[in-house]
Amino acid sequence: MKNIYKAILALGLSLGAFSCTPYLDMSPTDSVSDKLIWQKTENAEYHVNYLYTYLYDLLMNQCAAGQTEALTDMMKYGSYNYNSLCYIPSEIAYGVEQTLSAGYVSTYLGYWGTWYQGIAKTNKALDCLKRFGQMSDEDKLRIEAEIKFMRASLYFDLMKRYKEIIIYDEDLQSYTKDKGLSSEEAGWDFIYADLKFAADNLPAREAAKGRINKGMAWAFMTRAMLYAERWAEVKTAAEEVEKLGYGLEAQYADAYGKAINAGNNEAIIQYLFDRANDVTHSFDFYYTPGGDYALHGETGGGYGTPTQEMVESYELARGGKPDWTAWHGTTTQTPPYADLEPRFHATILYNGAEWKGRAIEPFVGGVDGWCQWNLDREPMGRTTTGYYLRKLVDESHDVIAYSGGVQPLIIMRYAEVLLNKAEACYHLDDNAGANAAVKAVRERVGLPYTDKAGSPLWDAIRQERKVELAFEGLWYWDLRRWGVAHKQYPEGLSGYQQHGLKIENNGDGTFTYSYVSVDDQDRNFPEKMYRFPIPSGELNNNAEVDQYPEWK
Q1: For 213-251, where are the alpha helices, taking DSSP H only?
Q2: Separation between Cα atoms, residue 59 and residue 283, nearest integer Å
Q3: Are the CB atoms for 3 and 276 separated by under 8 Å?
Q4: Three-state SS for 123?
Q5: What's the mean pLDDT in 14-20?
Q6: 29 pLDDT higher than 50
Q7: Which helix (H) or strand (E) holds 359?
Q8: How far is 545 from 177, CA to CA, in rounded Å?
Q9: Which end of the chain has fewer CB atoms < 10 Å from its terminal CB, N or C?
Q10: Which pLDDT tens digit goes with each residue over 502-538?
């Protein structure tokens, strides 16, 4: 993404070019003191805008090797080259103990140092606000709440990775080189306190004028407390979000693709872009069908593609799942794509699907093309699975005329809040609350639902989290926090291989579909991956920290 500091945020806030901020015109011309920055509301808000950019960083930096969906059964990166968004995600998913060293995991999944740099910035901001702020008490509380929301977001990302972390607050005088890890409970207490402060002191979205608002704090509370397994706090926070008037968009694709400033009532936290100011992202380049480039003699797209396992996760539009047995061999039967529910059609592009006024051709020799995993090192836009990603890819984007994409990137939406509430209610033995939330999500796409209890209710919640929130960066973390990732597939992420369909055009209007593995070996999730190792830099510089036992 270019010129991130000019980005339009989730909130619909245009940060503006920072060279235009009022305080930069003050004397002296070569620097600005903390005192001058934090005295006035307007100047303080501009400074806090720098912290807002961590919303984008946290979204896009969940795994340095690529989308975390590629560590699950959802997505396959097709290149055999040893790079990120190529072979390395598969290597992580294979889970070979010798490969998953502490240094390797820290490199691709850690972010310890990066997020602590952000936390240091939030703590300095809070310290300066309290020492130098001369704005009204109301503005001071609101700005403090914005900063604490950002600090909670950064600490949350550390907690879900490490479980035990080092807690630093805005008391800069108490900082010391050597400091021990907190307990897991203390970490969640700290995050809860920051989010509760934010929720209590931020304005509602209508009054926030594009800045962080009360709904964002309550919504994020439902996510954070879900990981903390504090079910009552999840339910309470979800009910507060409901009171603020959020709701599901009528069309599933609008839930994540429609901008907040275009009236999306489901998007709670969303990152927006602006081509006029050259504020764009590269998501379309990596995930659009390869034919979008091949038709113009160029190469791009198709880096990561949905798997057959993900396709088979979808139900029929009338409810229930089709029998895919015939397509686990070789057949000329047409797969039951047309009969699948709306979220499948909004998420995955398949053979013959309409896209940009043409039919997708993911077959051997087709415009989009097919590439055999591990034999063709570089797919050059061709799919190794027989599918392409549709969700989050902008169909209106002319990738030849404009390299960067501008479709919004969703961080959090109301459907997730409902499913967070459903999970919390399940654990609180509130079957009525859980069923109501699941039913609301399914009703949007016309799927039938009968109230459930016990294991069937849990299975329904798990199903909805997988398909409703597919490719939004949550499934890998869900399986980790549930403690099932090490178990055998399909409950966990061990003992299975991903598959695709090799498609061959028979020249008579029919196609031959062959079920093929797109892995070199079985995938596995070692139990030590339930928390990532403390990086060597922290261990070498902090005498109070010792490596977790499973990583020694």
Answers
A1: 214-228, 231-243
A2: 12
A3: no
A4: helix
A5: 28
A6: no
A7: strand 358-359
A8: 11
A9: C
A10: 999 999 999 999 999 999 999 999 999 999 999 999 9
Q: Spell out the residues 6+ positions from residue 435 whose beta carbon is closer than 8 angstroms to its own.
A: 422, 449, 451, 452, 457
- Look at residue 31 and tell me whether its pLDDT is greater than 70: no
What's the token pair of residue 233? 């706090």
Query: What's the mean pLDDT in 477-493?
Result: 98
Residue with tokens 């902008």: 394
Please, what sign has the CA dihedral across residues 239, 243, 246, 250?
Answer: positive
Q: How many residues does the chain have?
A: 552
550: number of Cβ within 10 Å: 13
CA distance 367 to 382: 9
Neighbours of 200 (CB within 10 A): 11
Which conformational region is residue 357 in: left (phi greater than 0), alpha (psi within -120 to 50 degrees), or beta?
Answer: left
**Lowest-confidence range among 330-334, 373-377, 387-391?**
373-377
For residue 308, give Cα distances in angstroms to 286, 324, 363, 371.
20, 10, 15, 15
pLDDT digits (tens, 9 = 90+) for 145-194: 999 999 999 999 999 999 999 999 999 988 898 999 999 999 999 999 99
Q: Which two tokens stand for residue 232?
A: 């009552």
Question: Measured between alpha carbons, how far is 198 from 48 in angstroms, rounded to an integer?
Answer: 14
pLDDT (tens digit per residue) in 304-325: 999 999 999 999 999 999 999 9
pLDDT beyond 70 at 30: no
Query: Given the structure tokens 């979808």, which residue do they identify?
Result: 314
Q: Is residue 109 within 8 Å of 170, Cβ to Cβ?
A: no
Q: Which residues pair with 359 in a beta bridge?
A: 354
Token pair belonging to 549 = 């036992």
Pick the closest to residue 130 from 143, 119, 121 (CA basis): 143
To which H or E segment does residue 93 belong?
helix 88-94
Task: Output the six-digit token pair for 121.
Answer: 């910035």
